[in-house]
Structure formats: structure tokens, C-alpha cells
Amino acid sequence: MGYAFDVIGSKDKAVAIIDSKIENEKQVAQDIMKQHKNVKSVLKKKSGRTGVYRIYSLKLVAGSRDTEVIHKEHGCFLKLDPKKVYFSPRESTERKRIAEKVKPKDSVLVMFSGIGPYAITIAKKHPKANIVAIEINLDAVIYAEKNIKLNKIKNIKNYCWDVREARYLGKFDRIIMPLPETAIEFLDSAFLSSKKGTVIHLYGISNEPKKFSDLRKKVKEMAKTFNIKYKIISDQKVLPYAPKMWKVRLDIKIL
Ligand SMILES: C[S@@+](CC[C@H](N)C(=O)[O-])C[C@H]1O[C@@H](n2cnc3c(N)ncnc32)[C@H](O)[C@@H]1O
Q1: Domain range for residue 193?
Q2: Contact criterion met (CB below 8 Å) for 141 and 158
Q3: Residue 75 located in a structural domain
Q4: What's the predicted TM-score (pTM) here?
Q5: Whose C-alpha lies nearest to ligand 1, atom 16?
Q6: 178 CB within 6 A, ligand 1
Q7: Residue 239, SS3?
Q8: Ligand 1: does its nearest atom lie under 6 Å from the Cβ of 137?
Q9: Do 239 and 114 sit in the same domain of this protein?
């Protein structure tokens, strides 16, 4: 098959998502369903991710209208419907990297938490950590709540809020900001939830594959405006985003 597609779901029921540029969509959908017996629906992107919720507009090309699936990664079960919420199976390695950085008793704020993949991956690995997840899309928050139960997690509080309201929840050891397109605009909110020693995992888009100086510059400006002292302790190229652009992460320690 000369085209890429994402499969989300389990060995019993999955959906495949194909690119908007694919022309012979019916034939492609049939080929996918023939080769991947677990794929019960094929959806085609009608646009890139749009709006505050960062979801694709998706068209059903073949198979069932019921596109709710349970995806498994790192031993976690994640229920979702890609028509209603953001989810990317390609970010699973990054979630594992972050969970490995968390210390067992950390207080962790997951901003832009979606259906809960970061919070749940961390909670499974660190049952003594205190985790707060904040997400604005009610459908995603409802799935996150189901996923917390599905994975028998006891240490996540899940809020349907704008992350700007996080300031009322006190200070955290670690803050995760997985919204690469605009997380930088919310860095002031992360500062308000920080104390000396807090590590902020800030995601962004960079056109510099090594130093991410464009994003570093924006962090410097924000920190100056809010009189915050910080050090960037590590960075990570996460995934390709567009030609010559990458999803990247800066790990910012508050001094
Ligand atoms: C890139 S998605 C990441 C979701 C999830 N962390 C994941 O990895 O699957 C970003 C999420 O941020 C949410 N979001 C956007 N603006 C927000 C805001 N101001 N407050 C809370 N959530 C927001 C969107 O609805 C979306 O679910």
C-alpha cells in the first residue's frame, strides 16, 4: 500500500484514518479493511486539525458509523471517538518519555489533557503521584473520566476547565503542556502554578531541528515579562509536523 494511515483501536475493533489527499478513497478503504480485519470503519480527513479542540473533520468512507474504540498503549486502555476528540497514537513514545521523567510522589498538572493519555500513563507508572488533568472539550473530559475508571486509576482529578483556571489549584512539581500550536500563549498560567523547582514540559512547533531557538526566544520573552527565573534543562524533537517543521519539547526548570 503506497499511503500512510493511522489505526486507532484494538484487535477486535479499530478505525483507520486516511489522508485528505487520497483520491481513490473507496478502493483504499476496502484494501485497508481486507488487510486489517480489526478495522471496522475507515474515516477520511476533510481538513487538518482545527479549532480549540484540535479535532479533524472526518468523513466515513466505509464500514460502521459507530467509531468509538478502545486503544491500548503502554498497558493503558483509552476509550475515544476520533470524530469527537483529539487523539494521536503517534505520540505514544513521547507519553512514555514523560512518564519516565516523573518522580513517584510528584504533584503533576496535565494541561490540555484530552481523553487522558498523559495523565493515565503517568498514573499507572506512579500510583503515589497526585495528578490533575484539565481539558476544555467536554466530550474529551467525559472520555477521560471513563478511561480513569477503565484503568482503575485512583490518583487523577479531572476537570472540564480552561487551563487559565489552574491557578486556583495551588502549585505543582511538574506541569505538562501538550498543545504544540499554542501552549506558549499559556506559559504565564503555568508560571502561576509553579514554585521553585517546578519543571514545565512545554510543547511547541519549531523550524529549527536542533536548537529550537525560535521557541527558546519566545520562552525568554514570556519569562522576562513575568519576571520568572528559569533554566532549560533538556529538550526533545518529538515528531515531524510539516515540511521543515517539528513538534518539539522544552523542559523548563523554575529557579
Ligand atoms: C493537542 S490536544 C492534546 C490532548 C491530549 N493531551 C493528548 O495527548 O491526546 C490539545 C487539547 O487541548 C484542549 N484545549 C485547547 N485549549 C484549551 C484550554 N484553553 N484549556 C483547556 N484545554 C484546552 C483541546 O480541546 C485538546 O483536547
Answers
A1: 89-254
A2: yes
A3: no
A4: 0.96
A5: 52
A6: yes
A7: strand
A8: yes
A9: yes
Ligand 1 contacts CB of residue 179 (under 6 A): yes
Is residue 125 domain-shared with residue 31, that is, in the same domain? no
Does a structural domain hold residue 195? yes
Return phi, psi of residue 210, to 5°. -110, -60
- Alpha helices of the chain — where are they, by DSSP H? 25-35, 92-101, 117-125, 138-150, 187-192, 213-225
Q: In CATH, what number is assigned to the domain containing residue 29?
A: 3.30.300.110
Helix extents (H) in 102-175: 117-125, 138-150
Domain co-membership, 99 together with 159 = yes
**In total, how many domains does the chain have?**
2
40 lies in a domain?
Answer: yes
Q: How far is the CA of 137 from the centre of ligand 1 (A)?
A: 7
Q: What is the pLDDT along the chain (255 residues), one digit of tens a residue?
A: 568 899 999 999 999 999 999 999 999 999 999 999 999 999 999 988 999 999 999 999 999 999 999 999 999 999 999 999 999 999 999 999 999 999 999 999 999 999 999 999 999 999 999 999 999 999 999 999 999 999 999 999 999 999 999 999 999 999 999 999 999 999 999 999 999 999 999 999 999 988 999 999 999 999 999 999 999 999 999 999 999 999 999 999 999
**Is the shortest distance between the CB of 118 and ligand 1 below 6 Å?**
yes
Q: How far is the CA of 59 from the centre of ligand 1 (A)?
A: 22
Same domain, 61 and 136: no
C-alpha distance across the termini of the chain, in Å:
51
Ligand 1 lined by 136 (C-beta under 6 Å): yes
- Return the CATH number at 233: 3.40.50.150
44 vs 60: CA distance, rounded Å:
6
Is 207 in the same domain as 110? yes
How close is the Cα of 191 to the center of ligand 1, in Å?
18
